Amino acid sequence: MNNKWRIIFASFAASLLLAACGTSDSDDNPSSTDGTNGSAVETPADEPETDIEEDVDSATAEGDEADSTEEEDLLKDAVETKSDAQDYSVMVMPGYTLTSEEPGRDSLYVDEDSETFMRIETTAKDEEAFSFDEWYENMEELLAASTDGAEPTELTDEAELPQGEGITNVKGAEAKSDEGYFKGFVMEREDKLVRVTIYATEDNEHIKEFTEMASTIK
What we know:
Largest sheet: 7 strands, antiparallel
Helix content: 25-40%
Structural class: alpha+beta
Strand content: 25-35%
Radius of gyration: 41 Å
CATH architecture of the domain at 77-214: 3-Layer(aba) Sandwich
CATH class of the domain at 77-214: Alpha Beta
Distance between the termini: 126 Å
Oligomer: single chain
Order of helices and strands: HHEEEEEHEEEEH
């Protein structure tokens, strides 16, 4: 009888020891289960990285700002110059000269190459002999004559047209031939019509500068 109880007590003590070990193991790894229902705790997924996208947006914005600054710098050192023979003024960049060649026509030419120039004609709207459309059609005829009959092409891209403040209407055309590259604009302002014709070589680097200066004629 005593031996029987000894065996029972020994078995009971062993059971308690095993239970205690199980509890200790569970306490040593509290992160493996949820303390409430025993389910596994999910580790939150890392939030997506946004640094790359922000860098791209920042670079794009800086590039746009740089382009805008470059456009503004074209006229940075230009000087407002009044015509001796006509009622207008124009911002003239360094390296260019404005001169009156004949009544009603001025030339804005490149100092280093007088064969590259922009002819400027203006007329007061209350004295105009031609309408806007008539002057544009006449300009196309001049371009065709300058290229020995090459058909002028109308410019439809606004980036190629003068866009100065106060210009209410503008149309342009270009014509190319072995003789050179010719480009013309007719602009309407509140008080006058302006027509400019650019004479240059096909790959001439002054086209953009002439267009910028034309936008300031007023």
